[in-house]
Amino acid sequence: MAFLLAALRVLLGGFFALTGAAKLSEQLSAAASQQTKALFEQFAEVFPLKVFGYQPDPMSYQVAVGWLELLAGLLLALGPPMLQEISNFLLIVLMMGAIFTLVSLKESLNTCIPAVVCLVLLMLLDVCHLVVQTKKVVRPRRKKTPSSVKEFSE
Q: How many CA atoms are closer than 13 Å to the CA of 98, on its beta-carbon side?
């Protein structure tokens, strides 16, 4: 089970690191870069904190999401356990925001599926990690005292 969790963690971390790098790099393809910029212009219009009067610049929003995905993905895949947990939490929040954004834009279900799958896998990784941690907790055994041993032997 630990091997499967480690493999899932590395795969998810690698996926997020690559998607973050793609958001930061304009060298992949000009068409993909333009499409991503257009998407983030739409995403900025339905930004969750817009209710409180904050609307980010689309380019800054894209760069922030790209760096968050890149760094959290690398830490999820390669970091120490505490940073893996933090990066998993950050990616869960990011995927919840992505789903909120896609639903706010009234995108099709097919468009929402990748974000939902990533969210489910991140939450599965988190829950399984908690289960494995609780199994590792050793409960102290009660030692028999000599007086209780004598009572049973008589």
A: 20
Q: How far is CA 25 from each of CA 38, 63, 109, rounded to the nearest angstrom? A: 15, 9, 28
0.85 exceeded by the pTM?
no
Q: How far is CA 17 from the centre of its chain?
A: 11
Instruction: Say how many C-beta atoms besides its own lie within 10 A of residue 42's C-beta.
Output: 14
* 46-85 confidence digits (pLDDT tens): 998 888 989 899 999 999 999 999 999 999 999 999 999 9
Beta carbons within 10 angstroms of residue 76's beta carbon? 28
Token readout for 113 is 């599926």
In which residue ranges of the chain is pLDDT below 70? 27-28, 136-154
C-alpha–C-alpha distance, residues 74 and 96, integer Å = 20
